[in-house]
Design a protein that fits this description.
With 221 residues, the protein is α/β, with parallel strands linked by helices. Helix content is 33%, strand content 27%. The protein has helices at 44-51, 74-84, 100-105, 115-128, 144-156, 174-189, 202-206; strands at 2-12, 17-28, 33-37, 59-64, 67-68, 85-89, 162-166, 194-198, 210-215, 218-219. A hairpin with a 4-residue loop joins strand 1 and strand 2 (17-28). Bound molecules: adenosine-5'-diphosphate and magnesium ion. Adenosine-5'-diphosphate binds next to strand 2 and helix 1.
């Protein structure tokens, strides 16, 4: 599903150079639930952003579903990403001025579908995450767990095969975290979506199909 070959990422500022990733080679299979662990600053988010085509490596190649992304132009890349990948972030990244259903519909604004169809798809995914009764609420009126469920609904509304989640339960208490994990496991098992998740939680990692570990930008296990 995703193949990373010889990925390096170097951040250069005027004062310092940081090698965030060093020669990462990784193959993620379709239907896998992969967890990524490692101390803060070891390059996990950088890796996820590169896999999700939000950032480009300094060198190395990324192939997604057989398509090499290297030479894609910005617009093609954005369309490809929009179709293939859904993102979930630790701090939800909802738009606070939009209500729940409008947040969920956002990824669909780039698709050629009718307003009615878009609304229908958003209602469907909100039902999946158990938030049909909160459709017209604002994000500020929701708990953290509910916000993350809205973010998951937004991530899957466009029916992507891949979900990338960067510490999705990092800001949640354990009960809300469990609810979010249950939803991710359902999306993996019942819908066959490939999930790659960064986590600091060993228990959560144990429940995934494979765990890889990073230290100082290198895969160590
Ligand atoms: N935009 C950036 N500019 C400069 N350095 C960065 C940038 N993003 C991340 N880094 C550095 O790259 C390293 C890896 O960061 P990150 O991928 O966020 O780690 P993690 O998610 O594992 O905590 C860290 O040393 C971080 O300071
Ligand atoms: Mg991070």
């Amino acid at each position: 599903m995703i193949t990373l070959t010889g990925i390096n990422k170097i951040y250069r500022t005027r004062e310092i150079e940081t090698q965030a990733l060093e020669n990462v080679n990784l193959e993620v299979n379709k239907g896998e639930f992969l967890s990524i662990m490692g101390p803060s600053g070891c390059g996990k988010s950088t890796l996820l952003n590169i896999m999700g085509l939000l950032d480009t490596p300094t060198n190395g190649t990324i192939t997604i579903n057989g398509t090499s992304t290297e030479k894609m132009k910005d617009r093609t890349l954005a369309e490809f990403r929009n179709r293939m990948i859904g993102f979930v972030f630790q701090s939800f990244h909802l738009i606070n001025s939009l209500n729940v259903i409008d947040n969920v519909e956002l990824p669909l604004t780039y698709r050629k579908i009718s307003a009615k169809e878009s609304r229908h798809l958003a209602e469907e995914v909100l039902q999946k995450v158990g938030l049909s009764h909160r459709m017209h609420h604002m994000p500020s009126e929701l708990s953290g767990g509910q916000c993350q469920r809205v973010a998951i609904a937004r991530a899957i509304v466009g029916d992507p095969e891949i979900i990338l989640a960067d510490e999705p339960t990092g800001n949640l208490d354990s009960k809300m975290g469990t609810e979010v994990m249950d939803i991710l496991h359902r999306l993996n098992k019942e819908e066959g979506r490939t999930i790659i998740m960064v986590t600091h939680n060993e228990e959560q990692a144990k429940q995934t199909s494979r765990t890889i570990r990073f230290f100082d930008g290198r895969q160590v296990e």
